Amino acid sequence: MVWMKVDRKDLISVACDLCGSNQEELLFTKEGFRYVRCRHCKMVYVNPRLKEHHRYQKITGTGTMGDSHLSLKYQKKIRKEIQSLNNYRKENRILDIGAGRGWFLKEAAMTGWETWALEINAQAIEHLARINLNRIITEPAEDFKAPADSFDVVRIWDVIEHLESPRKAATNIFRVLRPGGLLLLSTTNFHSLSRIINGPEWIYLNGADHINLFTPETIQNLLESVGFFKIRISTKGFKPERRLYFPHRKLPPPLPILYPFRNLIHELIQFTKYGHAMTAKAIKPDKIAIDP
After folding, report:
1. How far is CA 286 from CA 74, 142, 228, 233, in A?
2. Which of 22, 110, 119, 132 is found 20 to 30 A from 46 (Cα to Cα)?
3. At residue 60, what are phi and psi to the nearest 5 degrees?
4. Residue 2's pLDDT band (boundaries 50, 70, 90)?
5. How many CA atoms lie within 13 A of 44 on its CB side?
């Protein structure tokens, strides 16, 4: 992982990607990065952000973060997810955006799926090639080229928060999904209990990396705005860790009294919209309504 110190000359101001408004309110500042909320649509984002954000995503190690091997527990979880996709199997083609180490696609290929990866991180691209995942798109999610209506499933897991334009990416995903195709999306939940307790020091608030922070409301609005329907959003998990990044270091918990109850909170929070991990499933309509 490469962390950089923020310098004003390295930053660029942006409008809200969700609605285009420049009307914002400052929520807080963390390590030189301003976290703002759009006054119009309530989207939370980093503004200003790094001018070369996209280049840093290509060269830093985020694409291969996590375990270097696939655990049995995680393998079972992936296989269960892949099995649940059989009802969408028509073109027999699946795209994983931000494929990382390629665990999901490798398991999907073993069940006969034609697998495609979209990845811009240099380390991740090398790793995908080493495990023989050779259909790799190395363009950004916002404007990659692929035939329209060509994928049964598009999966974008813990990626959308890194993108300069989630709206453009969602529009592009909608284009390449076949009618009736499925979008699977995961991101952190800015409205989570973990973030509320930890405030600016929450572990997932790194302004050099996560530049768009979604809530159930704003992810719903994003997907609806580009044409998706049958949107199902769920949250789970309680992760109250705090961290700073310049330099990289963990901080003590703000409310140690909660730690003995972590497992209980973790179990109960899945029935609310306050879990730290948010997932969304959405469908591209079979027929696109056209105004007369």
Report:
1. 33, 23, 11, 21
2. 119
3. -80, 170
4. very low
5. 22
CA angle 233, 235, 236 (to 5 degrees): 155
In the block, residue with structure tokens 């580009």 = 226
Q: Give backbone dihedrals phi and psi of 97, rounded to 5 degrees, phi first.
A: -90, 120
User: Is the residue at 36 inside a domain?
Assistant: no
CB 197 within 8 A of CB 238: no
Amino acid in position 130: R
Contact indicator for 161, 186 with CB cutoff of 8 Å: no
The predicted pLDDT at position 292 comes to: 41
Beta bridge partners of 78: none
- The values of phi and psi at residue 74, to 5°, are -70, -35
Helix (H) or strand (E) holding 50: strand 49-50
Number of domains in the chain: 1
CATH number at residue 224: 3.40.50.150
Which among 156, 110, 151, 166 is positioned nearest to 133, based on CA atoms? 110
> Tens digit of pLDDT for each residue in 83-98?
999 999 999 999 999 9
Q: Which of 54-58, 83-87, 193-197, 201-205 has the lowest mean pLDDT?
A: 54-58
Q: What is the rounded distance in angstroms from the CA atom of residue 85 to the CA atom of residue 72?
A: 20
The answer to whether residues 24 and 38 touch, using CB atoms and an 8 Å cutoff, is: yes
CA dist 115 and 260 (Å) reads: 43
Q: What pLDDT is attached to residue 83?
A: 96
Q: Which domain holds residue 170?
A: 64-283
Q: What is the pTM of this model?
A: 0.92
4 pLDDT above the threshold of 60: no
Residue 257 pLDDT more than 70?
Answer: no
Among residues of the chain, what percentage have pLDDT more than 90?
Answer: 78
17 within a domain of the structure (yes/no) = no
| Residue 222 located in a structural domain | yes
Are the CB atoms for 184 and 157 separated by under 8 Å? yes
